[in-house]
């Protein structure tokens, strides 16, 4: 019993040991041409480590190619930014309307709201153009992919 207490006392912690550690190593040599082909396959796979990629090939796991279209990613990020700006405009719009009704007479508020309405109509047409461009982009993207 004293040994068990002593072991618990002197436990230094650290990483818990694995149940089945990978301790067997296999070495493979490639010619320059084979290595270039291997690297291109490895890069196409999107796997973060060469060892994991080789293990997957040896044990015949499916070979998946992950391709990212940088143009599509950039377009989506710009759309996200634009959406955030539209939300900000909506918030500002509500604040302006409240201030107009509280600080100005009804006639002055209506004339200012008329100007605001014209600008809002321009914003709506811009939004429709953005939606059309997005639909075109989506169709083009689906044709390619």
Task: Characterise the protein shown here.
Helix content is 72%, strand content 0%. It is mainly α and 145 residues long. It has five helices and no strands. It folds into two domains: 2-58, no CATH class; 70-144. Helix 4 packs antiparallel against helix 5 (106-144).
Strand content: under 5%
Q: Shape from CA axes?
A: elongated
- The count of DSSP E runs of length 2 or more, i.e. the number of strands, is 0
Major beta-sheet overview? none
Kindly name the structural category: mainly alpha
Query: Which value, in Å, is the CA radius of gyration?
Result: 31 Å
The averaged pLDDT comes out at 80
The ordered string of helix (H) and strand (E) elements is HHHHH
In short:
The protein is mostly helical. Helix content is 72%, strand content 0%. The chain has two domains: 2-58, no CATH class; 70-144.
């Amino acid at each position: 019993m004293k040994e068990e207490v002593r072991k618990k006392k002197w436990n230094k912690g650290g990483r818990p040991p694995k149940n089945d550690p990978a301790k067997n190593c296999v070495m493979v040599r490639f010619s320059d041409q084979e290595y270039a082909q291997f690297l291109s396959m490895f890069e196409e796979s999107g796997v973060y480590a060469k060892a994991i990629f080789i293990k997957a090939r040896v044990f015949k796991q499916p070979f998946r190619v992950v391709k990212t279209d940088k143009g599509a990613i950039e377009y989506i990020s710009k759309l996200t930014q634009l959406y955030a700006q539209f939300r900000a405009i909506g918030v500002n719009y509500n604040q302006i309307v409240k201030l107009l009704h509280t600080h100005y007479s009804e006639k002055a508020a209506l004339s200012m709201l008329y100007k605001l309405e014209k600008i809002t109509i321009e914003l709506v047409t811009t939004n429709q153009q953005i939606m059309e461009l997005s639909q075109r982009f989506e169709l083009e993207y689906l044709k390619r992919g």
